[in-house]
Amino acid sequence: MSFFKNQFANVVEWQEFRDDMIFYKWSNREIKKGSRLIIRPGQDAIFFNNGKIEGVFRDDGEYDIESQIIPFLSTLKGFKFGFNSGMRVEVLFVNTKEFVVKWGTQNAINIPTLGLPGGMPIRANGTFNFKVHDYIALIDQIAGVKDQYFVEDVKIRITSILDQLLMKWITREGKDMFNLQANSFDISKGIQEDLDMQMIKSGITITGFTVMSFSYPKEIQDMITKNASHGMVSDVGRYQQISLTDGMASGKMSGGGAASDMAGMMMGMNIAGKMMNQMNQNQPAPPQDAQPPVQPNGGGQKKPNFCPNCGEKTGAANFCPNCGEKLI
To answer: So what's the pLDDT on residue 267?
Structure first.
């Protein structure tokens, strides 16, 4: 009799667990007397019947369903297993971890931009984070019709509306089309709020959203780079010098050998000459009312070698050493 009774017992557990699986539904089977529930770390087990949650169990471990689970079920706590009767109830196992997903625009998004009739084609990539938040909404919207749900299913839902949200938050408040990275925090925050409003209806909350980078078409990126270089050198002459240097370094200048060396020497002499002119221009001019310095000895008057009074040799003295006659 004991063997006959135990053959109906079963184990309720998450079978074929995968890291990218959000939930797994154990269903369409009767739970018999002697059955056991196994909850592993990072899992919650939800007993529900006819779409209504009977109980949620969060602590990992192994439990006897009859003695440890049924007493805590809301409407089934008085259920008694009979010899041939089992409990018809569904068990939903939910992955409680926070999922991190990479995203990227499949096609360029044409952002309306002044001067570009077709808009500015922009691509973007980054990550978003999410986790299951509301079990009632999850069962009502998704688990009621699906036996399992994957990260890829959430990613498809999010990327289907991501282009519109990127366009909305990039163009909002006049964002600088050529410096989107500087506004990436505000753009990311706005998109996260909108995505959360969309997904929370299904019991999933968006816990993070990040735009890692924006990318432009090559022609636009080259223009941005040149404009940045022009701004750094601040004048056309030096900008032309840098352009000439880049052309020689990249091999785009025709000719080689002596011709290339001569071009380099001429460019170097030209740059050196402009640097000298710039230095001379930067030197302060003397004040217009400056007077020439007063020179000693009467502004150039030569002292006599002999005293005009006594004829004594004077040397470099200002007065005669013999008679004291002033020599200047």
So the answer is: 52
